[in-house]
Amino acid sequence: MASYDLILRGGACVLPWGVETTDIGVRDGRIAALGDLRLATAAEEIDCRNLHVLPGLIDAHVHLRDPGDAAVETLETGTKAALLGGLTAVFDMPNTAPSITDRERLDWKRDYLAGRAWVDVGLYVGASKKNIAELAALELQPNVCAVKVFAGSSTGDLLVEDDASLEAVMRSGRRRICYHSEDEYRLQERKPQFTSGMPHRNHMVWRDVECALLGTRRLMALARKTGRPAHILHVSTAEELAYLWDYRDVCTVEVLLNHLTQTDEAYDRLGGYAVMNPPIRDQRHLDAAWAAVRDGTVDVVGSDHAPHSRAAKERPWPDGAAGLTGVQTIVPLMLDHVSAGRLSLSRLADLMCAGPARVYGVVGKGRLAAGYDADFTLVDMRKQRTIEESWIVSPCGWTPFAGHRCTGWPAMAVLRGQVAMREDAVLGSPSGQGVAYLDARGH
Ligand code: DOR
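That is the input. Now the predicted structure with DOR docked in place:
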């Protein structure tokens, strides 16, 4: 008789080929069997009869601020937030203090994960004008998900804004590069039009559609010229989404949960707690983002979890910090969008698991299939729950989604065969590891 370490029994499993009610057998941290396992035994069993079983969901865009200010976030608190929110992996951005831009800091960060991360972690390397020549080697280091380029300035000191430097970055290495795409020249040129204390909604006037579209056009011209694949992070305008349709040879697309959920009314309601880069815009752009989810333009949905202190968020615009928390709330909010009929659970698994796996070249994750990591996000689509600030474990302590009632909630998360989160509690100790990537196996 077959025996497993763990069997998930009778869940509605979101498989790559459709949703099927079936059993999943886990051995040594990986999926060993999919199918009818009534005759099999296991050391541990989970009754999934009222749950959907998704492949472990990934947030490919988080800023865990470590090293940085522990009063705002740490790797440990940010990954705990991820796990409580139903994620099993996050990819962590490099604009920390100091930034992750060289081998030494990358090695430090990889070692630092052990015993601190509650979910698996991929590491971005930041591009700066000083490390362009080293990027080709840095992107091959273990656990590196991608090089991140800030082509427009945001939080931190990373910036590569001119075409000559951007082209040099594209010619250093060969993996897909991730871009923050806002045209820095237009940003700086228009900044003097705005003064301290103006209403927060000016954020989307300053960092306007043209700013984003111009940035993306410049990057696409260079990507075609160099043949270097690009991933445009947080695409926020209808215009870019229409434009990128024709660039699928060199470009993949991320859209944020925020741009699928919030519109400009948020500036009046939340003030500084609605300010992020690129900005939240009007309904036309939200509608375009959903159309792009439906037609397949969007490859990945992420949170851009970007915690800041309350003091930094409450300064008058534009002196405050840009960025919103989201790693703990992205799964409940996406499930709520599923409940509202805006996408299917299969598309959610595509956008938050198979999509990131494909775009970044993840090894062993991305689908419910034999041989893959036994990472599962188990969700209860009947559960209704309101997001409350008291639930947020990031030390900064706030969410722009407080009071949002969700239909659908993550009930459990399994990380490489271990139940790591169940009904609002993390279990055991932090056992997250570095995520493996096809083209990043070190030398
Ligand atoms: O709003 C943002 N905040 N956008 C970014 O690109 C960076 C992020 C941060 O690190 O605060």
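The mean pLDDT is 97.
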